[in-house]
Structure formats: structure tokens, C-alpha cells
Write a structure and sequence with these properties.
Largest sheet: 25 strands, mixed
Radius of gyration: 24 Å
Number of domains: 2
Oligomer: single chain
Number of helices: 6
Low-confidence stretches: 1-46, 59-81, 174-178, 357-368
Strand content: 35-45%
Length: 476
């Protein structure tokens, strides 16, 4: 196997200049193919496959007082004001009086809407909407979201909500003035609505803010559209460098692992890291993860215990390091602590890096004039050509999944990777040149090589067909 020093020299240079402070996020990409965020922040209702979630109670005060009767309009809001009557298919689950829905118990029911005949709507139309009632509270603003989460209750969202800094909100003072995250000890159902995390992510200059932190077993996050930093047209991913992690999954108590975590049919975009995982068992299914200045999913190997990660029917795009990064900064001697990744269904990773006009990770532009010529010289060596995919007279490398270990992790990082071949990825172990062995013990890349399912110039685009595949899987 021919030796490839390019990526590893880049890592070593970053380490030498002290950019990542330990274990390194690295990558190269050309300015000509740097990615920008989509301006479309519409709710992802189609993810629900027709189901709309309701909580069994609704908040009426900042205490635990609740009511089981509330006014509510469905995803058929376009007919609002023209509704003639509404009826429920199962009065044992819910009853209707006017636009007031009274929840009886958990379960499934269908509302039938019949529209009025008007000058513009000359024929009465019948609309059906199915509802799933779950244990939990219905919320439509940050205050009630905060109280629901603080009281460890499942929460069902019915509006786009901007997350506030609890340290700056009077009713959130019990948060002790230090914790910025909403700590989920129960499930969160989003109904396709947006949680705007930008205010939290803008708080830090160290990438350590976490709008959402999962801290208990069996938490489900479903049908939520998480948005991070607002990116202006033409901006590169470097603007996300200090923006933090949208969802952190970690108990943060020595020896305590999280189990039964599920992130289902969610979209996340525009942060340093989108999902950060440590010592946890988690299923990520039917999700869109895009635009990260580090990784879409960052998984830490730790002596606290293994992580079992199931990824099914997902699409990830535009991350500086890789779409999924496995890393460690501890010397893991017990093989039982190494991570297990199970890939099923499809996994579309849009993360090709052009080797033309390459630059180092965002944040190191000040040394670019020194570093880039070195990288370019290494890339031009004929011995490296087998490691790259040539397309349209340009060499590319596919940074899909990377496994890396710092020198501190003397025994390396050795996760079990199941299902990567079925989605078209190859495993490539990069020999470590002497300059890199001072800092690293492991560098393995999983992605497209000579057989590719996604072309280097193919841009990620979310559309209704993709949503259906994310929900139901992709036909062979």
C-alpha cells in the first residue's frame, strides 16, 4: 500500500501550532467548494408521516397546574377560520367542542375537519388528521418549555421556539446561573417545529455551550428542527467554529452510562458539533445533519464505558472534519470500552474535500500562507494518487467517518464498525509518518474511494422525496 502523508501532515501541523488543544479536528477543503447553509428553515412536517403529537395535559400557569382542555389548530391550519365542524374518531381518547379538544387518555384518534362553503371555496372539503396522544405537556413558548423540562416531564411542542439563556431569564434563576442547557430527563416531541438555538450557541468563545443536554435513560427526541447559528449567504463553515454543540448526550457522572436514547426524524444545522456522544447507547434514525465546523456527530471513546450507536436512514453534509468522528484522549486498555457503530438502511454523507486550493481547518487562516504550500507540495507527489478520487480534473478525498486517537491514547482507538460496506464505504488506514506519531496513534477513514454513490460536485438538497426515504427507508 502506498504511503499517504498529506492528511497526517496536516494534523501534525495543526497540533504543532496548538490549535485543537489535545485531540484534533482536522480537514482540508478548497474555498471553491466550501459549503453554506440553506436559507430554508421551514418546519419538517412531512417527517411525521401524518401523525401529529399531543400531550395529555397543557400548562395554564408556571406551577404544575394543568388542564386537559385546550384550543388547538392542527397542521391543516390553512383551513383555519373556514372550518364548519370538527369531529373525533375515538371519543374515548379525545372529544371536541368547537375548536376545543378535550384529551381523555393516551392513544390515537383522527379528527375530521369539514370546511365551510365560501365564495372562494365552493365545495365543502373533508380533511382528516391523525393525532398521537402521549404522556406529557403541550407547550408553545420558551417559558412553558422551560418549566416542563425543569419538572422532568415529556414535552410536546406546538410552535417555533427560540431558546433563551436561562441565566438571563428571571423565572429560570433556579438554574444556578451557570448551566445554559435544557437538561432532558424526559422525551421531547417537536411536531416538526423549530427550536432556535442561536442565542445559546452565540454565548461562548470556546465551543462548549450546549442548548440541549440529555441526562437520563430512555429519552426520545423526535420531529424537532434544531437550528444553530444564522449563516449569511456565501459564508463558510469557519463562522461556526466557536458555536458549541446542539445536543450533548452524556451522563457526566463517572461510571454512569446512558441507555435507550433515540433521536428520530430530526434536522440539525449550523453549529460546531451537532450531536456529541460519550458513554451512551443511542439510535439516530431518519435525521438530516448538516453544516458543522467540526463534525455532525462526534463520539468520544472513554474509560467511562462504551457507546453503542445505531444509525439508520440518515443524511449528513458539510462538516470540516468528517460527518462522524470517533476520537479519544485517554489510554483505553479495556477493549470493552471501544465503541460499536451499526449502520443500517442508507447513510448519505456529502463531505468531499477538494484538494485544489486546499486550506487548513477554520481558525488557522493566520498560518495559511506558511502551511498551504507544504500541503500542496505533498499532494502533488505521485505516490499519493491512489488515495484520492479524480473527478473533473480535480483530486478529492471523501471524509465520511474518521477514527482518530491522540498520543495519550497509547493503545489507539479501535471501534467496531458494522454496515459500512453495505452503504458503499471503504476502510482506509493511513500510515503514520514520523512527524505525526509524536501526536497520533490511530488514523482510519471510512468513505467512498473509487466506487462512489455521491459525486464530489453533488450538493445536498432536502426535498419531499428524501423526507419520505428518511421516514420509511429507501427502496433498493
Amino acid at each position: 500500500m502506498k504511503s499517504n502523508k498529506i492528511v497526517l501532515i496536516i494534523i501534525a501541523i495543526v497540533l504543532v501550532i496548538g490549535i485543537a488543544g489535545g485531540l484534533l479536528a482536522y480537514s482540508i477543503y478548497g474555498k471553491d467548494d466550501s459549503r453554506t447553509a440553506s436559507a430554508d428553515l421551514t418546519a419538517i412536517y412531512v417527517y411525521m408521516g401524518g401523525n401529529y403529537y399531543l400531550g395529555s395535559t397543557a400548562y395554564v400557569a408556571e406551577s404544575t397546574d394543568t388542564t386537559d382542555t385546550f384550543s388547538f389548530y392542527s397542521v391543516s391550519d390553512y383551513a383555519e377560520g373556514d372550518i364548519d365542524y370538527i369531529s373525533s374518531s375515538d371519543i374515548n381518547v379525545a372529544t371536541v367542542s368547537g375548536t376545543n379538544i378535550t384529551i381523555i387518555t393516551t392513544g390515537v384518534f383522527t379528527l375530521t375537519y369539514v370546511t365551510n362553503v365560501t365564495e372562494t371555496n365552493t365545495v365543502a372539503e373533508t380533511l382528516n388528521q391523525e393525532y398521537q396522544v402521549v404522556e406529557g405537556v403541550n407547550v408553545a413558548d420558551y417559558e412553558h418549555l422551560f418549566y416542563g423540562v425543569e419538572q422532568n416531564l415529556p414535552v410536546v411542542i406546538h410552535n417555533n421556539i427560540a431558546l433563551l439563556d436561562p441565566r438571563a431569564v428571571e423565572y429560570a434563576i433556579p438554574h444556578d446561573g451557570e448551566e445554559e442547557a435544557l437538561e432532558l430527563d424526559a422525551s421531547l416531541f417537536g411536531n416538526g417545529y423549530r427550536l432556535d438555538c442561536s442565542r445559546i450557541l452565540n454565548l461562548s468563545e470556546s465551543s462548549n455551550e450546549n442548548p440541549i443536554k440529555v441526562t437520563s435513560n430512555d429519552v426520545v427526541i423526535q420531529d424537532v428542527h434544531f437550528t444553530g447559528i444564522v449563516m449569511e449567504e456565501g459564508q463558510g463553515l469557519d463562522v461556526l467554529e466557536t458555536s458549541g454543540r446542539i445536543v450533548k448526550v452524556h451522563k457526566e457522572e463517572d461510571g454512569e452510562r446512558l441507555t435507550g436514547i433515540k433521536i428520530l426524524h430530526c434536522a440539525m444545522e449550523n453549529a460546531h458539533i451537532l450531536i456529541s456522544i460519550k458513554a451512551s447507547d443511542i439510535q439516530i434514525k431518519g435525521c438530516i445533519l448538516k453544516n458543522a465546523s467540526d463534525s455532525c456527530v462526534s463520539i468520544c471513546t472513554t474509560m467511562e464505558g462504551t457507546s453503542n450507536i445505531d444509525v439508520e436512514n440518515c443524511a449528513m453534509a458539510n462538516s470540516v472534519v468528517s460527518c462522524m468522528t470517533f476520537w479519544n484522549a485517554e489510554d483505553i486498555t479495556d477493549p470493552a470500552n471501544f465503541i460499536i457503530l451499526n449502520i443500517s438502511g442508507f447513510l448519505d454523507l456529502y463531505n468531499w474535500k477538494s484538494l485544489a486550493n486546499a486550506k487548513i481547518v477554520p481558525g488557522t487562516e493566520s498560518v495559511a500562507p506558511l502551511v498551504n504550500p507544504i500541503i500542496k507540495k505533498e499532494m502533488e507527489k505521485e505516490e499519493n494518487e491512489d488515495y484520492f478520487y479524480e473527478y473533473d480534473d480535480t483530486n478529492y478525498i471523501h471524509c465520511g467517518i474518521i477514527v482518530i486517537s491522540s498520543k495519550i491514547g497509547g493503545h489507539g482507538n479501535h471501534p467496531t464498525m458494522n454496515g459500512f460496506e453495505e452503504v458503499g464505504f471503504e476502510e482506509r488506514t493511513y500510515p503514520l509518518p514520523s512527524i505525526a506519531t509524536r501526536f497520533l496513534t490511530t488514523c482510519v477513514l471510512y468513505g467512498y474511494n473509487q466506487e462512489v454513490n455521491i459525486m464530489p460536485d453533488e450538493q445536498f438538497g432536502d426535498n419531499e422525496d428524501l423526507y419520505i426515504e428518511l421516514l420509511n427507508g429507501r427502496e433498493d
